[in-house]
Amino acid sequence: MKKWIFSAVLSVGVLSFSHGMDKPGPHGGFVQMPGAFHTEVVPQKDGSLWVYLLDINIAEPSVRDSEVIGWIETPHSKINLDCRLAPPDHFWCRGVNANVVGKLMIKAKRQSAQGNVAIYNFPLKLEPAASTGHSGKTHEAGKAVPVKSKTGTTPSTKESSEPSAKNQHSH
After folding, report:
1. For residue 66, which phi and psi values (nearest 5 degrees)?
2. I want to staple 98 with a disulfide (CB 3.0 to 4.6 A). Which of 3, 39, 41, 149 is the partner?
3. Could you tell me the CATH number of the domain that includes residue 131?
4. Does 166 map to a domain?
5. How far apart, in whole angstroms, are the C-alpha atoms of residue 148 and residue 135?
6. Residue 171 belongs to some domain of the structure
């Protein structure tokens, strides 16, 4: 019985790191699991974000019957992002300011399955975690650290209604 309990606990621990959050996703982005699917946020050179809605295996992006709502929360403001469908396989979120330090919030629905809000530290950057006791180091699952921007501009704090991007078409 003790061996069975130990095996079950060990399996849960291994599964918690098998979601891909300890390394970049298939598009080089940051992965979270807000429900029965994964979100992958990929920062772009122009400051926008691409958001992929991936299946449980961190593959097969889908925009069918899907939507993304994004915003950044700081201690003093909420900055809504303009997230729109970018066919064939992702959403494009604009209104991101690299100088902002806070929490990037992504609320998504993939193929009619509603997820919880995926929370990313913002700006996005993987942070090495302490040694796991295994061979070498890993990245802490979904962990990000602030990075100072080189632009020197101040963040926008103007609030607007929560934008959404929907695709109700079935393929």
Report:
1. -130, 160
2. 149
3. 2.60.40
4. no
5. 32
6. no
118 half-sphere exposure, CB direction, 13 A CA radius = 31
Q: Is residue 79 part of a domain?
A: yes
SS3 127: strand
1: pLDDT strictly greater than 90: no
pLDDT band per the 50, 70, 90 thresholds, residue 149: very low
Total of domains in the chain = 1
Residue 14: strand, helix, or coil: helix
The pLDDT assigned to 98 comes to: 80
Tens-digit pLDDT profile for residues 66-105: 999 999 999 999 999 999 999 999 999 999 888 899 999 9
Instruction: Please name which of 61, 9, 63, 30 lies closest in space to residue 147, comparing C-alpha atoms.
Output: 30
Q: What is the pLDDT of residues 31-50, one digit of tens each?
A: 999 999 999 999 999 999 99
Q: Is residue 20 part of a domain?
A: no
Contact yes or no for 58/19 (Cβ under 8 A)? yes
pTM of the model: 0.66
